[in-house]
Amino acid sequence: MPYLERDPLRGIWVITSPERKRRPHEDRDKGFVCPFCPGNEHMTPPEIYRVPGGKDGWVVRVVPNRYPITDVHEVIVDSPDHDADLDTMDERHVNVLVEVWRERLEALRNNAYVLLFRNYGHGAGASIMHPHTQIVALDVVPDVALRESANLREHDCVLCSMYGRKAFISGGYVINVPEVQTVPYEVWIHPLSHRRHFSPSPPFGRLLSATVRALKREFNVRDYNLVLHQAPEGYDYHWHVEILPRMGRFAGFELGTGMRVVHYDPEEFAWKFTDIIATYVKGST
Ligand SMILES: [Zn+2]
Ligand SMILES: [Zn+2]
Ligand SMILES: [Zn+2]
After folding, report:
1. What CATH number does the domain located at 22-282 have?
2. DSSP state of 24
């Protein structure tokens, strides 16, 4: 069973979960069979939830992670299509998917904290390319959430004040290129109004899909992480999705200081991105 402890010197939370080592890896394992593809449903633990439909009987499935980080670790199989990603799924499907995100986050809300994230590409830590989202429940509120909450208080909120270099606003949502980008080509998506808990409405799926499409096509992003931050119970917050492209690795300096180095011009990116994102949202690209 995984267990949690805090490193006494640096204050870093560490979860020890030896199980994780046994994870299958699409590129490294000989004779790899994808447990998330239709026809292989028996390879996952018993299903928690599904959205029925399509020729395979389901369009989204939710199962427990066989190699969990914590006791509550769910995998959402985003689509029956092994090669899909948020940028290639049709808009209706993305909206169905984000509604499943909302439902699972809601169902797990009695935990101290719940993180929803996606790893896309091996450079982002994905061991299986089949598109999937993960949700991990924690017994503690991570330091990132505590720090963000302090800056996301209603009436004094970084996102309400539209902190960013440039932003694109559509259908009650903001695609925001932050002033300080912690990784190259970082982009946030959040509601225009101050909402604590993830509450997507249809334009959100379109904006999410368009953002990923633009990053891949215009900026050569191959691997990325997506994290969804919402309020831990009892805290103020402004929910947001952070899209974090992984153009390089974190090395000694980053590990030794907790700081980040980006080697490109964030201002130039902000201008170019906000210039082209409208055409992607409209669906003409
Ligand atoms: Zn697959
Ligand atoms: Zn706010
Ligand atoms: Zn955040």
Report:
1. 3.30.428.10
2. -
